[in-house]
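Changelog-adjacent note: as of this version, every example in the card shows the full chain rather than a window. The one below runs 181 residues end to end.
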Amino acid sequence: MLALAGAARPLLAVETLAPAARPLRAPDVPYEPSDMGVVRAMLRMAKVGKNDVVYDLGCGDGRIAIAAVREFGARAVCVDIDPKRTAEAGANARQEGVAGRIEIRNEDLFQTEIVGASVVMLFLWPEVNMKLRPRLLRELVPGTRVVSHFHDMEDWAPQEVVRIRANSRERNLYLWVIPPR
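Full-length structure tokens:
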């Protein structure tokens, strides 16, 4: 069973997933793992530290959460609608020896609880970012950092934009901080 210390709800036991399990609904974006250089740049941009809880919405294979735990000392929550991805994230976390500090959730990113996040990581499509934005602004506490790989959030001006080269392509990383209410 994967768990974060102090978690208030039952956590997903990745081992119980049936190999033929299907996503809760069709995923909003195709799986495309971020280059590890991009992952580290995103975590540095958010100034992730040992007191942070990093949520990766659309976590794929868990690489962002694993790096947040292993390299920055944070705790993490992986959320993905596809049980194949959450199973892979759980297996990767166990292989890297960080499973005890990562919660794995096979849930819809539009419905999962995000209140405990101090950092939220995104690599979604523009329309998904825009659909998620009202929840981020409503449910996250002021000061929570949100980082998006490649896609902005239209008229929500980022605090910082970093241009990074990965896999022979230039990409932008965007940082927002949830403002005071």
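Structural remarks: The helical segments are 36-45, 63-72, 83-95, 126-139.
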